[in-house]
């Protein structure tokens, strides 16, 4: 009998998980899956997950939430043979979208039975943080920080904080060091991309794949106020390569130095202000169930 451990974020997406938990129970019983459930809390999640993995010994650990919940599960499965599955229930489900995982709960649950394994790369950031999908400094990281400090959830809440962030200066002077080059640039946002799209659908990295052996540095150069809507248009329509204010570099290693601290977020979780970021790719570290 297959054993599945479900990690459920009870506040992801701003919706109650009562109905989902009933769906989960009925699915596991009908498919004769042995299962356990952990609901995440404000702290102590890694310890609780590790303890449950040790005692329950599941074959699959299922992240039920948004990108932050997926990150939580993945970092507890690094360098193991266990598989990760994703039920996208968050405000942002960017990685699930990149992997083609259905937003319908029943279809996503079916991947526990019919999914194929895809070994995903991970970006190690400042040694003790891990990114599966997208991390960034500046504009979007400030939105994520404000979003997580509030009690609001959902896409409308994100839009509210997006509009608020338009009136904040996010620009920094950055020094970028890659294995084959180094350069300096003033930028409003810097993205470390292991995937391609944010959860709200905007494509930040046209060449992004989470299992291709490298990640992308995407730099949004400082632009005049009158160019904002041009940049936004290119961003939302998947035409960033046509923007004079956007550049992308593929790499396996990266060091970033900012002239003063700037907000950093990793997979939708704010980490606070940093003035240095060291990023190294760890290839094929998380076995993930995706549509066949």
From TrEMBL:
GO terms for cellular component: plasma membrane. The keyword Zinc does not apply. Keywords: ATP-binding, Kinase, Nucleotide-binding, Transferase. It comes from the Bacteria. SUPFAM superfamilies: NAD kinase/diacylglycerol kinase-like. Residues 1-129 form the DAGKc domain. Coiled coil: none annotated. One of its GO terms (molecular function) is kinase activity. This is DAGKc domain-containing protein. It comes from Flavilitoribacter nigricans (strain ATCC 23147 / DSM 23189 / NBRC 102662 / NCIMB 1420 / SS-2) (Lewinella nigricans).
